[in-house]
Amino acid sequence: MPLALPEGKRLAVSVSADFDAHSVWMGSFGNTSPAYLSRGEFGAEVGVPRVLETFRRFGIRTTWCIPTHTLQTFPSQCEAVMDHGHEIAAHGVYHEYIPKLEADEERRLMELQLKQHEKLVGSRPAGYRSPAWDFSETTLQLLEEFEFTWDSSLMGRDFEPYRPRPVIRQSREEGNVFGPPSSVLEIPVSWYLDDFPPLENLPRSVGMASTDDVLKRWTDLFDFAHERVPGGVYALTVHPQTIGRGHHLLMFERFLEHASQHSDVWFAPISDIAACWQD
């Protein structure tokens, strides 16, 4: 179902920054070595100011998905994000790997991040992005219970928001059965529209791809969405510690120049885009 976008706009563009800093290395990779933590420090101390300046120059308001570990470790940078008018969404406590959590622990961490987020940001988050870009069997129920408006972790569409449904029966011989659509609106993500996998030097990953290759992929997908999915949303995810590197930032700015040349494209935070959904 297409979004009811502002008059004259054909495509919504969400540029979201996952500001993980130290937490992605500690939580997702279990690594606390000085070299890994310094990469997170670069994201906070160097990447965040560079990315904020890029957004300022292009006049773009965005959503920042920030673990509460980062909110506590780098408070001045998080305050700068808010001072620049950007939205802050929930992104876990310490970039925990959601599918491996026991149900009680996932609930405890959900309650903790909401408490910490409200204290540090000053309000409850409207949206959530799983640190794992994946759910457990109970994540969607928790998001509904804690009254999140939107999620941006799943991949059931490419350029259209949708209501995710739980798979309540998983069978190889009889087919799966879906539960009812959720009250939570999904703004889908894509590994193809994420800077971290192709551009970072990661354990067990090639990484460090050509910026020309990444730019072509992002631009091709943008052109497809703009031409063929009117009323859709193009959701691009960047990470300050990745996109903030000089050669990556130049590539990112070339993409923004391409997208911003289209007068019928609307750059907006995810909550603003979710508000355009009509069931």
TrEMBL record:
It holds the Pfam family Polysacc_deac_1. GO terms for biological process: carbohydrate metabolic process. Gene3D superfamilies: Glycoside hydrolase/deacetylase. GO terms for molecular function: hydrolase activity, acting on carbon-nitrogen (but not peptide) bonds. Residues 34-268 form the NodB homology domain. PANTHER family: POLYSACCHARIDE DEACETYLASE FAMILY PROTEIN (AFU_ORTHOLOGUE AFUA_6G05030) (PTHR47561). This is Polysaccharide deacetylase. The lineage of its organism: Bacteria, Bacillati, Actinomycetota, Actinomycetes, Micrococcales.
